[in-house]
Amino acid sequence: MKVGLFLFIVTTLRTPSKPLTACPMDILIVAIVTFAINLLLGRWRVRYRKFSPMWWVLIHASIPIVIPLRIGLGVPLWTIPVFITLGVAGQALGARLRW
Asked: Which residue spans traverse the membrane (predicted)?
């Protein structure tokens, strides 16, 4: 009984609920969210001393938001370098902007 339930849960979690190709709009949504979040985090990051614990937190704070969004929308793996680039660009631009 326990083995059957375990196999059911594992196969349910591993079975993709969406097709393996993502809609271009999903990719655009994740890209915009990634850039916008990192823009704000980059703005907050300049208030802290470089390499301080809070500085590191703000550098990596968007990851727990972007990864579940990307997985939930079924965005393919080849877009990860694009999102990393957008995250770095958002952080850099947010640090330079004066609001």
From this structure: 27-46, 53-71, 77-95
User: Residue 49: which residues within 8 A CB-CB, separation 6 or more?
Assistant: 55
Please give the helix or strand (H or E) that residue 83 lies within, else none: helix 80-96
pLDDT over 90 (residue 9) = no
How many structural domains are present in the chain?
A: 1
Range of the domain at 62: 22-96
Q: How far is CA 89 from the centre of its chain?
A: 14
Is the residue at 14 inside a domain? Answer: no
Q: What is the pLDDT of residues 42-96, one digit of tens each?
A: 999 999 999 999 999 999 999 999 999 999 888 999 999 999 999 999 999 999 9
Opening angle at CA 78, ends 76 and 82, nearest 5: 110
| Tokens representing residue 80 in the block | 């990860």
